[in-house]
Amino acid sequence: MAVRLDKSWIPLNDENVAKLAAHLGVYQLANDDGEILYIGMAGARSLFGLKGELKTALEEPPAGVTQFRIEVNMSYRTRRLELLQTYMHDHGELPAANTDIDANSIGRLRPG
Amino acid sequence: MDLSLTEEQKLIVEMVKRFVRDEVAPLEDSLDPDEDTLPPEQFDKLVAKTKEMGLYGLGIPPEYGGPEVDITTNTLIAIEYSQHRAGLYAPCYGAFGGAGLAQMFEATEEQKEKYLYPTLRGEMKTFFGLSEPSGGSDPARAIQTRAVRDGDEWVINGSKLWISGADQADYGLLFARTNPKEGRGGVTCFIVETHWPGFNVRRIVHTLRQARHATEIQMEDLRVPHTNILGVEGGGFAIANDRLTRQRIPYAAACLGPAFKAHEMAIEYSQIRETFGAALSSRQGIQWMLVENEIDLRTARWFVLDAAAKADRGDDFRTEAAICKLVASEAAGRVIDRSMQIHGGLGVAKDLPFERWYREIRIRRIGEGPSEVQKHIIARDILGAGLR
Predict the structure, then answer these.
(1) What is this structure's pTM?
(2) ipTM at complex level
(3) CB contact under 8 A, A111 and B34
């Protein structure tokens, strides 16, 4: 499994969210230019998993969000952490809408 | 052998049992089923309680501020404090503190000042870098990471796999080959800081567990001062081996915590759950599963406490440590599996802790030396040191 999530972006709209299943996993939200604005997860307490999380994102999107991509993954906690650490490595800060996380607490990764 | 508890041990066990039941387990109702950390305010509250109980800093020698408990009492505590959902890999979410790296107590005073004391104060996190892609159970032969002396420094190149928490750590112990011509005598232990150039955590290795996750690290021309050797040059194998032996008793004890809890839950559920007009507990098929659980748990507990008692007496406990690790990790897996079966569909849902325990306990048959290596150690003891 690649460290970076490199799937194609999907427009965040009713039609595309309706196609999602209630899997556990991770997701990224981005603007029109594909700049990642939020990295989230659908854990075991997420109602309807990724579908539920993306539905919430559609109803209350962080500023600038127009697209999303997902990865179904039972290791949603460590996978999300890895994606956050990778973003920190690449950009020196967390995605703009991940304001609920302390950047000093997530650890360090230097993916090749 | 008398394995009855002293009055003090009974009181401690009861106190820890109440702590887990009343303070820790209720928090898990609102946490993600795979959570391994608590919000700071909840964590601080738990730490205040373990300090109040006089049990904060388990594993830290009393001369360094740890509680005055022997290995047997420590083992009894480990069986109790792991009896909750996160208990196998995050017992009480770390509220009992701990030593971090026990090997650091053998460090020089300068090394202790820089690394050990801040760790004991909770200011630094650590990792233990032994296993490599080439293996972890046979460090004398498997270690390929190379350290070459360059003046007052060593230059390290190589990679390590399955290293827990290296991405979160401030420093750790890294084992490297300093003399390729020697087996055991060619391995040296270095204290390395994770922010140094050339130390790279490449990825998280996603496994059955999400708590205390594993990582893969690479060293590329990592320069380490000669003064950061722990112990002596060529003395790394003894440090690694000592850790592997010591670690087996608490490792085995912690396996039993979730298994005891799973068994307790299975007994309770079997008495309230009715099928075809009668309680599950009235069915012989269920009774036998519970009986097998009971036998597994009593057997494993005996071996674990026997090893702890031997260690407390100062006897050689290498074989006993291998036996208890082997028996406890395998018995706990069977107990959790049967308890899950008794719970039916509920057993596999994330609503209950069985599915987490089921995933995590599987790792325990491999971690800290797989069952087959434990058998090899026991066979070597029976048949003589000449066995390869």
Answers:
(1) 0.92
(2) 0.90
(3) no
